[in-house]
């Protein structure tokens, strides 16, 4: 628990340091970077299909606009290239329903975006009419904006698609001597690309900050939950011995009593009291007394062998074992084993009047709950058996039956 809490504090410190940073690098340390990419791509995938709908509407509007002003005698091959955008939109729609895009969103969309830029760069070369070519160049600005800002691509992938799809056809055309209208290319393709790079950097930086702030909130909630869990645990654990405390024992007893009543199964209690513990403290001091309590707590913890068994500190120098499903014979055997395990610790007790080492007096009760009793009666009889063990000379086990006693060994 302490290690987890310490790790959470370290994570919060790292996130706060990144939030305070003013660097230009769009990258986190590996664990955070992986978390950001997964978070970013999940969000991007959720809006991808809706983005395709808007892109299809934009394509339709641009097509209608072009057809309105188009001189069909000068159309050339432009409609065939322009229809490539429709093919890409349909292909993207189909791919959006495949596992591939969930696994490789950035790579797949980057490839599609590069094809968009390729078509956008070639389109003006196919038009001879200067006025219509100007409109095509302006339409290319939309393609640049979509690639950088409309597809949720991280900036490196957007740049790869924008420059990697647009520059090669321009270079090839220039090399082959194809006339290029640089007066339009520079302000549209180059100008829009640089502007969108700046905007894309700003947007990704903002998305990363929002992710860090979300992580900070998640870390705070995790830390609060861990602290609440620790406080809850401490509220049910004895601070000295580490065993369950009286509150946890009462809750467990009530729960197990109800279950035993429902299933008609036996329920056993073993109460133990350290013999002459006040004299032990007087002789050795309270520090040694606390150490003795911790040693015996370990013995009781070992006796809680099953998941349903519970070892608790009942109060003072009294301990209790709650043993669901344990009948008379098994309960007495467990009590004898407990008493012997305490003696085997060989903790010297010079002032004990029953043995030279630390011992315990043990009271045992086992019963099948019925309508004529309650868990308080079970505790009362176990405590009475403990009193009888102490009255009989201590360092011994005393059994007390209750209600419908199970057969020995049940």
Features:
alpha+beta; rod-shaped; disordered C terminus; five-stranded mixed sheet; 13 helices; 410 residues; disordered N terminus; Alpha-Beta Plaits
Strand content: 5-15%
Structural class: alpha+beta
Main sheet record:
5 strands, mixed
Query: Helical segment tally?
Result: 13
What is the count of structural domains?
2
> Terminal Cα separation, in Å?
40 Å
Query: How are strands sequenced across the largest beta sheet?
Result: 2-3-1-4-5
Low confidence ranges: 1-7, 402-410
**Overall number of strands:** 5
Q: Report the radius of gyration as a whole number of Å.
A: 39 Å
Order of helices and strands: HHHHHHHHHEHHEEHEHE
The rough form would be described as: rod-shaped
On the 0-100 scale, what is the average pLDDT?
84
Helix-residue proportion: 55-70%
